[in-house]
């Protein structure tokens, strides 16, 4: 985990994400990529693609670069390599295409807590990135302060398909030398006996060399409530999940626990695509 992407719309929420990125970068000697995406009106896009230039386009670029330069001079970024760029693309597509071109290891995005959605880079765009990004996505809800992820929850069904993305979760836990709480949520619609749940989790964890972890089974009305309520009981600093990256009707009918939690919980959430 050496290259971190932080998309910014220059909002307070984006700054919270950048502060979190700075802390992780210092702990793990990472490079930060700061990206601002410009969505231009059609006539401006026509001018750009035809090789033309109009004053409005140049003004947008100039102002964006000035703001990015100011951000790079913030004291909390001292000692960190920060690359800033402006890209002409829709927010969601721009973030994913930037990842592939620059071999990004982690995306950190800012978001509201449980209030309304306004900024370009949050809300539906954050949900799309969480659902479809091939690399881990960390969503930050508020000013992180010291960002000391000591208690991290990882909620899962602990099936075989989780093993590969879980390796990345372990790497993240090791950065912070955190306590890892592995939890299986049992609901009326996904009930497992305690014996079966315990066996599944023990068989799963045997494949990894993890120091500080504990296994838990938590009963609740649905999975989202179970993860939220369990996280409160152990005073979690971060919630980790895997996402299937469903699209279309499959996503509509199955829903997305990851997206729901990103929207509804006030705690930071990190997701890993299966």
Automatic annotation (TrEMBL):
Q: Report domain UspA positions.
A: 1-141, 149-272
Q: What domain of life does the UniProt record list for this protein's source?
A: Bacteria
Provide the family line.
Belongs to the universal stress protein A family.
Q: What is this protein called?
A: Universal stress protein
Recorded source organism is Flavobacterium psychrolimnae
């Amino acid at each position: 985990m050496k290259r971190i992407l932080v998309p910014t719309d220059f909002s307070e929420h984006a700054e919270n994400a950048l502060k979190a990125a700075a802390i992780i970068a210092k702990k793990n000697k990472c490079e930060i990529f700061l990206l601002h995406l410009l969505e231009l009106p059609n006539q401006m896009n026509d001018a750009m693609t035809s090789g033309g230039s109009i004053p409005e386009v140049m003004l947008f670029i100039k102002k964006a670069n000035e703001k990015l330069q100011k951000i790079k001079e913030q004291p909390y970024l001292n000692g960190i390599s920060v690359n800033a760029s402006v890209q002409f693309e829709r927010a969601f597509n721009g973030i994913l295409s930037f990842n592939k071109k620059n071999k990004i290891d982690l995306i950190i995005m800012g978001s509201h807590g449980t209030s309304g959605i306004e900024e370009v880079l949050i809300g539906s765009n954050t949900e799309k990135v969480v659902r479809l990004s091939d690399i881990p996505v960390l969503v930050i809800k508020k000013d992180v302060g010291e960002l000391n992820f000591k208690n991290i929850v990882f909620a899962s069904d602990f099936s075989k398909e989780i093993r590969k993305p879980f390796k990345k979760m372990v790497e993240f836990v090791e950065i912070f030398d955190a306590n890892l709480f592995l939890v299986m949520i049992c609901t009326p619609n996904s009930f497992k006996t305690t014996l079966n749940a315990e066996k599944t989790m023990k068989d799963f964890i045997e494949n990894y060399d993890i120091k500080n972890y504990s296994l838990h089974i938590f009963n609740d009305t649905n999975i989202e409530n179970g993860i939220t309520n369990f996280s409160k009981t152990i005073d979690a600093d971060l919630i980790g999940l895997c996402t299937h990256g469903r699209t279309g009707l499959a996503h509509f009918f199955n829903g997305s626990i990851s997206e729901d939690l990103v929207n509804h919980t006030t705690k930071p959430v990190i997701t890993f695509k299966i």
